[in-house]
Prior knowledge:
- The protein has 310 residues and is an alpha/beta fold.
- The chain is 38% helix and 15% strand.
- The chain folds into 2 domains: 2-201 and 298-306, HUPs (Rossmann fold, 3-Layer(aba) Sandwich); 214-294, no CATH class.
Amino acid sequence: xxxxxxxxxxxxxxxxxxxxxxxxxxxxxxxxxxxxxxxxxxxxxxxxxxxxxxxxxxxxxxxxxxxxxxxxxxxxxxxxxxxxxxxxxxxxxxxxxxxxxxxxxxxxxxxxxxxxxxxxxxxxxxxxxxxxxxxxxxxxxxxxxxxxxxxxxxxxxxxxxxxxxxxxxxxxxxxxxxxxxxxxxxxxxxxxxxxxxxxxxxxxxxxxxxxxxxxxxxxxxxxxxxxxxxxxxxxxxxxxxxxxxxxxxxxxxxxxxxxxxxxxxxxxxxxxxxxxxxxxxxxxxxxxxxxxxxxxxxxxxxxxxxxxxx
Length: 310
């Protein structure tokens, strides 16, 4: 009997915790709509942006989200993700703006060291070009503080200067949910409504709200290459190297980005409930276990954020 009561109390605590996170996110989404003239919601089609979009749907209603969705497409994204992005935007009746790294390459504002290098880091250039094109003054992103150490240093309302750069030592205090949103011409804010969520919170919310995700997030059989402790998906962009062999493994993606830098993990989880249990047991961070571009200090998140990254 006591065990049943404990389980019931735990369920109620979990629901209360998710309710509080959802309320905070909705509050922030409303603050952005009220405080800025030209905000946009960064939408990749990934799980975090889908959770945020669900909160936006609850905040404003289907067909009533007051800002467009923006995606910076590297040209090396998983087709399952971009297809789902288009489907979800259409389903919500939301305006979707897509800007491509390919166009920045064609203009010469992005220069690749080699044709097959990851374009993930180069999204910063295309993003800043989109900000200038549409004169966005606030960009709502799905970053969470538990993803990576540099994320934890940033405020919910993150001020960016006229060059789109983040200055960690010049952040504004956020006390009692009061946000200083004043900006000068050419400046903007990055806003992170789910900053206080964890990977576990996200999956619990996905389970509670029955949020549909691209199938990449669930266990499936995929041909992979074991490389430097990571499971690299075999593709034309990530081919076999000399001496390597591929094998079919049951995997899922914890996070999804550019094909050239995103790796899955071994998993048999086919439901959000299965993934919740895996997440509780995980001892490596989401990005640390799956992102090739986070493996070296030269490509650190903090350095990228200072240059205008998400």
